[in-house]
Amino acid sequence: MEKEYRFKDGGSIKASSPQEFVTRLREGSKFDSHLTDDEYMKAFAERFKLQTGKVIPVDAPEHFIVALFDYGYIIVV
């Protein structure tokens, strides 16, 4: 089942799994779309930590997306 994830900046992504969410997030990236999904999660998490001080786990797309939700970066509609 596809879900819509909205970002606090107003953008959104539709995905049917955490893995697909990461892939679509990476594909929409201005700078890191050439990376693998795992590399992208790591790069995103590093930037997020620098900007917010919060740590996002990158061991699995499921943990990555839960952290983004918990930190208020995304909401599910």
Topology:
Layout (H helix, E strand, L loop, with lengths): L2 E5 L4 E4 L2 H10 L9 H16 L8 H10 L3 E3 L1
Antiparallel strand pairs: 1-2, 1-3
Helix pairs in contact: 1-3
If you had to describe this structure to a student in words, what would you say it looks like?
The chain has 77 residues and is an alpha+beta fold. It contains three helices and three strands. It has helices spanning 18-27, 37-52, 61-70, and strands at residues 3-7, 12-15, 74-76. It has a three-stranded antiparallel sheet, covered by helices on one side. A hairpin with a 4-residue loop joins β1 and β2 (12-15). α1 (18-27) packs across α3 (61-70). The longest helix is centred in the middle third of the chain and has 16 residues, at 37-52. The relative contact order is 0.20. The model has no long low-confidence stretch (mean pLDDT 95).
Question: How is this structure best summarized?
Answer:
This protein has 77 residues and is an alpha+beta fold.
What are the salient characteristics of this protein?
77 residues; alpha+beta; 47% helix; 3 helices
Q: How many H/I helical runs?
A: 3
Mean pLDDT: 95
- The percentage helix is 40-55%
How large is the radius of gyration? 11 Å
Secondary-structure element order, as H and E? EEHHHE
Mass-distribution shape: globular
What's the main sheet like? Answer: 3 strands, antiparallel
